[in-house]
Design goal:
By secondary structure, the chain is α/β, with parallel strands linked by helices. The protein has helices at residues 13-27, 41-56, 71-76, 91-102, 116-125, 149-159, 175-180, 190-193, 198-210, and strands at 31-34, 64-68, 81-84, 108-113, 129-132, 164-167, 185-187. α4 (91-102) links the parallel β3 (81-84) and β4. The protein is globular.
């Protein structure tokens, strides 16, 4: 997941994010989520398009590029999917629109959830996957309340058949625990944005893949 706000504001912040995207793609990340809520128009579209180029340059199966919230940008840039939050369009409406021929058949629609009940509702609405969390303590997710913990993550994973990805404070020290609890994968920001070279990112991806 990208987060431009983690870097100093300035003209080079988008370039830094693009470099981290290239590192993540080369490290073997399965998905790259463009999570830039302050970017609009051409700058956001450029970020998505260059992320797609980075993903497609990977050997083997390319990483999916998912755009946060902006369905219009995701479809226009031919990204792999859109990720919705609770302030986004209703997931059922987005899925209905996409499945009416407005998006490719393999276009993914996911949503963030914070309880097993929300996870079940997302599956019923037709979501392809969900993010569940925050699993652990993390400053960026404090407004969602106390961490859910591993037990609630396991409950959410057991409640549905669609993939559940763990989010919130996930790092190299606890990612394997999330996978053992049933998560199909994990979403992380710091493990990739803090990587100035590919070694840290590769180690993290290998850890997650090896825990499945």
């Amino acid at each position: 997941m990208t987060d431009r706000s983690a870097f100093e504001n300035g003209e080079n912040s988008v370039e830094i994010v693009l470099e981290r995207i290239r590192i993540a793609a080369e490290a073997g990340a399965d998905w790259i989520q463009i999570r830039e809520k302050d970017l609009q128009g051409r700058t956001l579209s450029r970020l998505v398009e260059e992320a797609l180029l980075a993903a497609r340059s990977r050997q083997g199966t390319p990483a999916k590029v998912i755009v946060n919230d902006r369905l219009d940008v995701a479809v226009a840039a031919r990204a792999g999917g859109v990720h919705l939050g609770h302030a986004s369009l209703p997931v059922a409406d987005v899925i209905r629109w996409c499945r009416s021929g407005n998006a490719p058949a393999d276009f993914l629609v996911g949503i963030s959830c914070h309880s097993a009940a929300e996870v079940r509702e997302a599956e019923t609405a037709g979501a392809n996957y969900v993010f569940f969390g925050p699993v652990f303590e993390t400053p960026s997710k404090r407004h969602f309340g106390a961490p859910q913990g591993i037990a609630k993550l396991a409950e959410a994973c057991q409640a549905v058949r669609i993939p559940v990805l763990a989010i919130g404070g996930v790092n190299s020290g606890n990612a394997a625990e999330c996978v053992r609890a049933g998560a199909a994968g994990v979403a992380a920001i710091r493990e990739f944005q803090g990587a100035n070279d590919g070694e840290r990112a590769r180690n993290f991806v290998q850890l997650v893949h090896g825990s499945r």
